[in-house]
């Protein structure tokens, strides 16, 4: 599991080993400084000539200088590793889910699920700095210390090994077991509170207008109380693990000291080493202290990691053929022939035996009540969903024999399903054609009747549109999406409810512009409204996934 | 880029300290436990030095059994005190933070600007849950650590001065280096922490935005290019962050250096003086064991400050939001019954946009009248509804009800007389029945059914397996726009208020649903004043009067 996360983050094992090694060196130098100081003082107490101490003095000074340097390099290198890996995880995660969207990501349309997915990815940022590196380098230091102590006094080595094992392995294991359940409960409570807060803030105007502010605030406070109660329970356990490490450290030091006293009295230990081995034992626990915290972190990280890996390991259902046909010609006739389509996991098909024909330059309207499967037609055309029966044909060739990108290049999508990115108007337009010139951008803005408005903005075309375009009015949003689709200049313009949220006059004017602007492109207009229907050649009515009428006008 | 309205975080925001008022006792107990733990560390050092020195001189286990037993007691007590320090600190923090969240919710719900800026709200919700973790560091760690950082070095110095004044002097010389570096670190990290928090949330929201827009990216064949871009953005962020860290960690390293060099310096001078017979072994060993403890609380404080700076940056944001409360009306005027509502040259400007949404608008709604408000997109039709509901106050001009300025009425009282169907209604997580009851929580089932019937929603609700108990909203059963609209209409009708505001009730509906809604609107007109905001000519033509709104000059 952790190995798979390391693989996903693109960090090679040798690189990880180097970072862990640096951490171990930095900690070891600190332990060595304390032990060497103890040795220096003990040796000095025997009052040898000062010259006999020179080497030890140099060592102590050297350690005092190098430890901070080693720690500095270690922190830089490990943080660099963390940032690199988060970047890699993000881009790899994106690359792997890209062919799955939207059909194979369950409930993708729901904002909270997308947010949770992204939150899980964000949570992996602690994998190295807080999760993996401290315990691994701690382990290395612990082994070094035990060996050093055993060389001086075997009994001390044994005791130190036992103490470190309790502090570094037994306590973290206990802590992990204790925290697994609370961590899951906390995460659930937190997610619940967070979605309630978001909902409450989003719906604040309605809640206030309907006088429900008091009861709603009370409901959130109740959740908050639950979270606080859980926090309280977790606090005792989390703090207990740290305290147990301290206790193990203290008692081990006492035991090592007792063993040294015994050995010294028995004559098997050089008096100089009594303080040295004790201080070594005391300082060795610096290696074990971060381990319980790292264990808790890892529990949270692996829970998030499991969900991330579940997504990244899915195989795309819709794939490119081994030897694809050449791209369909721009003037291909596009046809849905007896298409039955169903979303994964859905009990009944959304489309049943649907026939639809789009001639080059033709204009077809697809009408029907909400839920009749109009948007699914778009998904089938763009190959976000493959038919269960029947086929999507370009000049009679099955779309599945073409490359997906060639199929999608045939269409230009606008309408309510199209996403506006939290960027500038320009960037949102350039998505359709990155190489478009300033004049081309202006031209599509004119065609979508946005040019006057854009020019009136202080930042013009470089104005930010806000998250999901929320800084624009509903009408402006639709027009910007339309302008983007026009810029793409694909053979077919698919307009999915382009005039939702527009007043009748504006919608009428917009539709007239659309048909003029579309030029020789074919247009598929998906709508439940009447504007624009007078400009099409054919109206296809859809109800409950079936074509109920197809009338030429 | 959205610039948060955060004030620049100071060292510790005084508003944060004020927030601790209810938990002062807990925080005091916490600091006391911290001091006890620190004193036990000193005792531990003295005991270890004593035992090791006696052993050096040849004493056996039996002779040292008492100090060894004392050592075991001291380390156990120390572990217990440290546990208490941790637990009490976090408990105190949990209470403070919970109260802060509560205030935030209450403030947003009482704020007359509620929901004017949806973008702000989403960001705020994230800060309220996630940012609180960072704040926990401030309350549970930073504040108690401040006490320790002052108390422990003083105790160590006093103890060392009693044992060996010369070493105490040496410590006194190296010690001031620490606060100086800490001050330097504080200055750099504080400013950078705010920038980093913003960048990090920007980066994360950029990624969220891209994932949300995945279908669009794929439709435009830009999915693969985007993966590369994510890589580039992450790489850019990494480089910028590493630059910050190089400096931030450098100050930390210098601090580290002061501490380890201090220890090394003391070890060497004490060693040399030992050879010269200037100091005893036990005293020398005690001083050596105490030396790291001198710097430890200050170093801990520095690292907590580092972590706490993040919290401080978020805190500013939350405290700002929680502080906004509507000023209560001193002596609210009574609400005039069945009065004409009149807009008297009302203007409105959105606080951040700078452009006027309404300019000198006059409008009259007579009792029992149905008025249609029409106008191009962006002409401020929805703003009129918000002003009527007092979800926002006019920047200029007055709204009068029978001659009384509604600003002088109690807002909750005033809203009780209004039912509202917003343009994009939100269903809250819960049952359909509870959603309809939003404005009338005690309404009987029968009345809920009647309202649903009148809104044309009864039929589809009864076809759902769980009927009125179906869970909707976030995570519940997905509903179509038309279904949502009709439930929201039922909600408005159940409110049974004399003034009904319908904001584009048919905008998102297919013709069949729109017909149902139009019929429902007709049914509820008798006995009510109705303001219909419409682009739908059919709907507008049924009104008694049509008012046209022009786009406000910008």
Write a structural description:
Chain A is of the alpha/beta class and 553 residues long. Chain A is 60% helix and 10% strand. In chain A, strand 4 (389-394) and strand 5 (397-398) form a beta hairpin. In chain B, helix 4 runs antiparallel to helix 5 (165-174), helix 5 runs antiparallel to helix 8 (223-275) and helix 6 (177-212) crosses helix 9. Chain B has a 5-stranded parallel sheet, with helices on both faces. Chain B starts with 13 loop residues before the first helix and ends in a 6-residue tail after the last strand. At the A-B interface, helix 2, helix 3, helix 4, helix 6 and helix 7 of A face helix 2, helix 3, helix 4, helix 6 and helix 7 of B.
> How does the overall form of chain B come out from the CA principal axes?
elongated
Strand order of the largest sheet of chain B: 6-9-10-3-11
> Which percent range describes the beta-strand content of chain B?
5-15%
The largest chain-to-chain contact, stated as pair and per-chain residue counts, equals:
A-B, 162 and 156 residues
Write the H/E string of chain A, N to C: HHHHHHHHHHEEEHEEHEHHHHEHEEE
For the report, how would you describe the main beta sheet of chain A?
Answer: 6 strands, mixed
**Rg result of chain B:** 34 Å
Into which percent range does the helicity of residues of chain A fall? 55-70%
Helical content of chain B stands at 55-70%
Q: Tally the helices of chain A.
A: 17
Class from secondary-structure proportions of chain B? alpha/beta
Mean pLDDT, all residues of chain B: 80
Lateral arrangement of strands in the main beta sheet of chain A? 6-7-8-3-9-10
Q: Give the terminus-to-terminus CA distance of chain B.
A: 23 Å
| Counted beta strands of chain B | 11
The share of residues in extended strands of chain A comes to 5-15%
């Amino acid at each position: 599991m952790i190995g798979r996360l390391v693989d996903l983050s693109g960090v090679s094992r040798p690189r990880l080993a180097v970072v862990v090694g640096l951490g171990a060196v930095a900690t070891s130098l600190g332990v060595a400084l304390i032990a060497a100081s103890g040795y220096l003082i003990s040796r000095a107490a025997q009052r040898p000539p000062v010259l006999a101490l020179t080497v030890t003095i140099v060592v102590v000074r050297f350690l005092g200088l190098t430890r901070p340097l080693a720690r500095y390099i270690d922190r830089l290198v490990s943080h660099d590793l963390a940032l690199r890996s988060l970047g890699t995880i993000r881009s790899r995660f994106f690359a792997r889910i890209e062919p799955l969207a939207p059909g194979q990501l369950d409930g993708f349309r729901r904002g909270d699920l997308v947010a949770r997915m992204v939150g899980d990815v964000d949570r992996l940022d602690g994998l190295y700095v807080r999760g993996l590196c401290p315990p691994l380098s701690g382990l290395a230091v612990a082994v070094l210390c035990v060996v050093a102590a055993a060389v001086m006094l075997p009994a001390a080595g044994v005791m130190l090994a036992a103490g470190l094992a309790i502090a570094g392995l037994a306590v973290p294991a206990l802590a992990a077991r204790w925290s697994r359940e609370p961590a899951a409960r906390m995460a659930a409570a937190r997610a619940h509170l967070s979605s309630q807060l978001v909902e409450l803030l989003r719906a604040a105007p309605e809640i206030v207008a309907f006088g429900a502010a008091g009861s709603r605030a009370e409901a959130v406070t109740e959740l908050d109380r639950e979270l606080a109660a859980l926090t309280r329970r977790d606090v005792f356990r989390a703090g207990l693990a740290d305290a147990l490490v301290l206790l193990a450290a203290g008692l081990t030091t006492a035991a090592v000291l007792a063993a040294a006293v015994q050995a010294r009295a028995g004559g098997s230990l050089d008096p100089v080493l009594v303080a040295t081995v004790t201080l070594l034992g005391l300082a060795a626990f610096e290696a074990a202290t971060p381990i319980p915290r790292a264990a808790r972190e890892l529990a949270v990280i692996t829970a998030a990691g499991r969900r991330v890996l579940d997504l990244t390991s899915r195989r795309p259902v819709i794939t490119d053929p081994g030897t694809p046909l050449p791209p369909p010609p721009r003037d291909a006739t596009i046809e849905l022939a007896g298409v039955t389509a169903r979303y994964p996991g859905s009990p009944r098909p959304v489309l049943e035996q649907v026939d639809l024909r789009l001639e080059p330059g033709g204009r077809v309207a697809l009408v029907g009540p909400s839920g009749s499967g109009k948007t699914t037609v778009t998904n089938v055309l763009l190959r976000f969903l493959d038919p269960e029966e029947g086929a999507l044909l370009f000049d009679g060739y099955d779309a599945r024999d073409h490359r997906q990108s060639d199929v999608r290049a045939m269409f230009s999508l606008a309408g309510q399903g199209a996403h506006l990115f939290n960027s500038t108007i320009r960037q949102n337009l350039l998505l359709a054609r990155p190489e478009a010139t300033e004049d081309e951008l202006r031209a599509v803005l004119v065609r979508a009747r946005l040019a006057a408005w854009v020019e009136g903005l202080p930042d013009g075309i470089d104005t930010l549109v806000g998250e999901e375009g929320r800084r624009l009015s509903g009408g402006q949003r639709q027009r910007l999406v339309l302008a983007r689709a026009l810029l793409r200049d694909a053979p077919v313009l698919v307009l999915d409810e382009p005039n939702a949220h527009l007043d009748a006059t504006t919608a009428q004017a917009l539709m007239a512009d659309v048909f003029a602007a579309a030029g020789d492109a074919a247009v598929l207009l998906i709508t439940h409204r009447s504007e624009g229907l007078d400009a099409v050649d054919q109206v296809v009515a859809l109800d409950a996934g079936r074509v109920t009428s197809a009338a030429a006008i | 880029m959205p610039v948060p309205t955060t004030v620049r975080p100071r060292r510790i925001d005084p508003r944060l300290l004020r927030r601790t008022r209810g938990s002062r006792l807990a925080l005091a107990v916490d600091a006391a436990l911290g001091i006890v733990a620190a004193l036990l560390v000193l005792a531990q050092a003295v005991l270890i030095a004593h035992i090791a020195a006696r052993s050096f001189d040849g004493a056996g286990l039996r002779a040292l059994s008492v100090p060894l037993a004392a050592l075991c007691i001291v380390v156990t007590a120390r572990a217990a005190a440290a546990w208490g320090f941790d637990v009490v600190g976090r408990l105190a923090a949990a209470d403070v933070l919970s109260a802060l969240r509560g205030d935030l919710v209450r403030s947003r719900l009482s704020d007359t600007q509620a929901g004017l800026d949806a973008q702000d709200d989403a960001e705020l919700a994230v800060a309220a849950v996630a940012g609180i973790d960072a704040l926990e560091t401030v309350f549970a760690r930073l504040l108690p650590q401040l006490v320790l950082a002052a108390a422990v070095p003083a105790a160590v110095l006093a103890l060392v001065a009693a044992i060996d004044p010369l070493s105490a002097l040496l410590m006194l010389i190296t010690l001031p280096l620490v606060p100086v570096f800490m001050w330097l670190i504080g200055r750099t990290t504080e400013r950078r922490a705010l920038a980093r928090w913003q960048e990090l949330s920007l980066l994360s929201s950029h990624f969220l935005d891209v994932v949300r827009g995945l279908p669009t990216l794929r439709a435009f064949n830009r999915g693969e290019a985007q993966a590369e871009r994510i890589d580039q953005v992450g790489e850019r962020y990494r480089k910028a962050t590493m630059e910050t860290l190089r400096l931030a960690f450098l100050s930390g390293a210098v601090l580290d250096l002061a501490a380890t060099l201090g220890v090394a310096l003391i070890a060497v001078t004490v060693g040399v003086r030992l050879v010269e017979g200037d100091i005893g072994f036990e005293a020398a060993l005690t001083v050596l064991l105490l030396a790291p403890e001198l710097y430890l609380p200050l170093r801990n404080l520095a690292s907590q400050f580092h972590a706490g700076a993040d919290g401080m940056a978020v805190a500013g944001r939350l405290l700002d939001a929680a502080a906004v409360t509507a000023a209560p009306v001193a002596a609210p005027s009574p609400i005039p019954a069945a009065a004409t509502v009149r807009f008297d040259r009302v203007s409105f400007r959105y606080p951040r946009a700078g452009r006027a949404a309404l300019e000198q608008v006059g409008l009259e709604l007579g009792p029992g009248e149905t008025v249609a408000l029409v106008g191009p997109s962006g002409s401020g039709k929805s703003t009129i509804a918000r002003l009527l509901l007092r979800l926002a106050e006019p920047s200029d001009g007055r709204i009068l009800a029978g001659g009384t300025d509604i600003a002088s009425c109690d807002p909750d009282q005033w809203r009780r007389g209004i039912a509202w169907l917003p343009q994009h209604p939100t269903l809250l997580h819960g049952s359909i029945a509870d959603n309809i009851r939003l404005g009338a929580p005690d309404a009987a089932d029968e009345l809920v059914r009647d309202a649903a019937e009148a809104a044309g929603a009864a039929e589809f609700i009864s076809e759902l397996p769980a009927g009125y108990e179906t869970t909707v909203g976030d995570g519940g059963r997905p509903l179509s726009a038309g279904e949502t609209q009709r439930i929201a209409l039922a909600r408005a009708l159940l409110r049974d208020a004399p003034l009904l505001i319908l904001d584009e009730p048919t905008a998102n509906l297919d013709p069949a649903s729109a017909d149902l809604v139009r019929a429902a609107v007709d049914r509820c007109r008798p006995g009510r004043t109705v303001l219909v905001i419409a682009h739908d000519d059919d709907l507008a033509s049924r009104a008694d009067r049509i008012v046209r709104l022009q786009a406000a000059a910008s």
